[in-house]
Write a structure and sequence with these properties.
With 279 residues, this protein is an alpha/beta fold. The protein contains eight helices and seven strands, in the order αααβαβββααβββαα. It has a single domain, classed as Zn-dependent exopeptidases (Aminopeptidase, 3-Layer(aba) Sandwich). 34% of the residues lie in helices and 15% in strands. Strands 1, 2, 3, 4, 5, 6 and 7 form a seven-stranded mixed beta sheet that branches. α4 links the parallel β1 and β2. α2 packs across α5, α4 crosses α8 and α5 runs antiparallel to α8. The longest helix is centred in the C-terminal third of the chain and has 19 residues. It is globular. It starts with 33 loop residues before the first helix and ends with a helix.
């Protein structure tokens, strides 16, 4: 297993780091959830029985050249606007609501940055591709910014606010101690456990890891205190995905190089979650 993930307690200094400002609105996950870890084998068996592992994108042999990686980072850094970003309609039940971390944020935490890309740019790139994929499958997808997610009063409780079958916010991480954090999964409610395993498996496959190794060093928590969890009613899945640490040079290169595969696989996971929840 490559050294993408370093499993250790998150430093308290991380909270004060400008590079990790997003941690002020998200949970610091210092250890695995025992319930999530113990459910992994059963979840993987269910996913395999339903053919979820078929068709997931995997890393190609070899890697991008320095010039190719730089060109891709330049494209991502241009922050091409995501098509169809809007405020949600009250009373509409969307199939999927996606929120790219810190996207179009005007106040508060603006996210982290690496040497190649910012979190906002990378999340916009990935989420834009996920949304296009899901819409191509005929799903009703809403992409919301970090600030403006309802057309009227933002303080309205979740049960009278955004509604969807699935909600997923996607972020990248940062640390004052480079290479100290790894991907993490946070979810709200035990009904989201299988769905988050599907997303975790999709991410690990895109990055070239065996899931058994990936989840052993992963951070996972139930009922995370993410601010959007209080503003969305999504009974099938309410989740938060941190794809990795941009302040770790090797990880950032992997995340940029694998960004399209991450988007392909997460879209596959979300589509799978929608399909299986209807059965």
């Amino acid at each position: 297993m490559r050294n993408l993930i370093a499993f250790s307690a998150v430093s308290i200094a991380l909270l004060a780091s400008p590079a990790a400002a997003q941690e002020r609105e998200e949970p610091v996950i210092a250890q695995n959830s025992d319930a999530f870890t113990q459910s992994a084998d059963d979840a993987l068996a269910q996913l395999a029985a339903r053919g979820f592992d078929q068709g997931l994108a995997t890393p190609e042999l070899g890697s991008l050249s320095t010039a190719q990686l730089s060109a891709l980072a330049t494209v991502i850094g241009q922050e091409t606007p995501i098509s169809g970003v809007t405020r949600g309609e009250r009373g509409v039940v969307y199939d999927v609501i996606l929120q790219p971390g810190h996207y179009q944020r005007t106040t508060g935490a603006v996210g982290t940055s690496g040497a190649l890309v910012s979190e906002r740019a990378l999340m916009g790139h990935i989420v834009g591709r996920i949304a296009a994929d899901l819409r191509g499958r005929g799903l009703n997808v809403l992409v919301v910014s970090a600030d403006s997610y309802l057309r009227d009063d933002q303080s309205t409780p979740a049960f009278d606010g955004l509604r969807a079958r699935v909600f997923l916010s996607i972020h990248a991480d940062g640390s004052v101690q480079p290479c100290a954090t790894g991907p993490s999964l946070a979810y709200h409610g035990d009904n989201s456990t299988l769905a988050m395993h599907a997303i975790g498996f999709a991410l690990s496959t895109a990055l070239g890891y065996e899931y058994a190794d990936f989840r052993r060093d992963n951070f996972t928590v139930n009922s995370a205190n993410y601010y959007m969890f209080r503003r969305v009613e999504a009974p099938t899945l309410t989740g938060l995905l941190e794809i990795g640490e941009l302040t770790c040079p090797a990880t950032e290169r992997d995340l940029v190089a694998s960004s399209d595969k991450i988007a392909t696989n997460v879209a596959r996971a979300l589509s799978f979650i929608i399909e299986t929840s209807a059965n």
